[in-house]
Write a structure and sequence with these properties.
Helix content: 25-40%
Oligomer: single chain
Distance between the termini: 14 Å
Number of helices: 3
Shape: globular
Number of domains: 1
Number of strands: 5
Order of helices and strands: EEEEHHHE
Structural class: alpha+beta
Length: 75
């Protein structure tokens, strides 16, 4: 997992992992969620990857566009 830069300093996201067709998001409460092309859509996953790498806007994007469309809650 990579630490999320959190440029705005108010994000609920703490870390992420990027794969070819997925992204795993870890929130500050340590809950981790797998978002895939199949569950969320390719366009959303690709945008989430960009936001994760730049460290800006990922939590907002998740809340506005893909909140409950994760493939799996990981433990």
């Amino acid at each position: 997992m990579h630490t999320y830069k959190n440029e705005a300093e108010n994000s609920g996201v703490s870390a992420y992992e990027i794969g070819t067709d997925f992204i795993i998001i870890e929130f500050e409460d340590t809950n981790r969620y797998l978002y895939t092309y199949q569950s969320t859509g390719k366009e959303h996953i690709e945008q989430m990857k960009i936001l994760a790498i730049t460290g800006q806007g990922l939590a907002t994007y998740i809340n506005q566009h893909v909140r409950e469309h994760y493939a799996e809650k990981l433990t």
